[in-house]
Fold:
Amino acid sequence: MRANLLRKLRAGEKVFPGVLGYDSTVVPQLQNALLARHDLILLGLRGQAKSRIVRLLTTLLDEWVPVVAGSEVHDDPMQPVSRYARMLVAGRGDDTPVEWLHRSARYGEKLATPDTSIADLIGDIDPIKAATRKLTYADEEVIHFGIIPRTNRGIFAINELPDLQPRIQVGLLNIMEEQDVQIRGFNVRIPLDVLMVFTANPEDYTNRGSIITPLKDRIDSQILTHYPRDLETGIEITRQEAWQDRSGVGDAVPEVELPHVFREIVEQVAFEARASEYVDQKSGVSARLTRAALEALLSAAERRAVLNGESETTVRVADLIAIEPAVTGKVELVYEGEQEGAQEVARSLVGKAVAAVFKSTFPDPGQRGAASRRPEAGPGRAAYAGVLGWFAAGNRIDIDAGGPDAAYRAALESVEGLRELATKYARPSGAGATAAAMELVLEALYQHSLLGKDLHEGSSTYSDMMGSVLGGLRMQDDEDYGMAS
Structure:
């Protein structure tokens, strides 16, 4: 592995293809550990590509290696370590049968669970083998090897190491330091050539278990993983992982256009969740959230197009409600979050994401009078004077979330000045993207408390902020009157 890594580095090859955002942090540390021939542990929260990195380590193994045919521990014909291979080579010499083993077969993995035993990992005496072959328990050939010896000359990974019982972790100490295995009372040691790799989540240290100190001391390198540190890296990870190309899967699949701003919003939801006071930050917010959210967003637009008999459509702001199940299922809430309710927290995160992303393209609606004081800051809220004036005149707009595209665009076109505002700043590529940008303006004004919004079953209404408040009070009065009567 060391030699192959050096070769890849000299050639400028990508060592861990598909792993994004770690080029200046995790990857250099991994390379240093491998060059030092260290056993290592990847420590990080859920959804930080730990398992993917571990499985990519096999690309550093030689593609094929010779092994003694029939050997359970992949014995090297030139340096056999098991009794079976030693006897075979001693007896047959150059006529020893040899097989070629692909690197994909030189990787072993075990998810640490409380029921994992030493026999699973290291091995045990096989009484059936002893009886059928009439061997004594003192004979080395009665050993049934566990998964680690069977990964000799390869890589063995244990995921979620703290879940492994302490007494089982003790059984790994010899492998980590002396590179050998001891089984039961056998006074025999089998030297192994195995790279030991572990993964762990810091949350597990207190919630489910811990790594015993002697084992931790024997792990040469501890490498900390992390979530994407910028929006663009997160977008690229989601683009790589999410199922987006749905052509050919099903009959008459509608074509769904996804404006880039929605990729930004989906990714920003995860960033907002990782900073939210309602979300348990010790549990983390997995990168799987954005993958699932983007897939749900595309599916919402796809479903709407099918129901309306349309062959193509564009994702809308109203479709963002479809990502709520992906959010609620991927975040752990603290007590205050539980009091708010998972759905309300998810809706709040989406709203904050819309407001944050909106300001990267449009003037900040929160800047009151920015143009007069600091011209470089942009027009601020003044840019929306025409749109807000239209609503202040008593107008309102109803958007049917599941309605056809023609009706959706017609409703947005009724708002004076909205199209001009969207095209000026968003520069959309077509009619669908233009309508989506127009709705995004309304939603952002609502998120900045400049417009009112009432959610109905399958639709939403934008109106003047004061009119929305008064309407809500009237609705409450009607409900109270109904209850009284």
About this structure: The chain is about 45% helix and 15% strand. Residues 363-485 form one domain. The chain has three domains: 2-224, 228-358, 363-485. The two ends are 80 Å apart (CA to CA).
